[in-house]
Amino acid sequence: MEQKNSEKMKYISLVTLTVQNAALGLSMRYARTRVGDMFLSSTAVLMSELVKLISCLWLVYHEEGNSISKLKEAVHTQIIKQPLDTLKVCVPSMVYVVQNNLLYVAASHLDAATYQVTYQLKILTTALFTVAILKRQLIATQWTALVVLLVGVAMVQLAQTEPEKTDKTASSGPEQHRWVGFGAALAACVLSGFAGMYFEKILKGSNVSVWMRNIQLRIWLKFTD
Question: Is residue 168 in a domain?
Answer without folding.
Answer: no
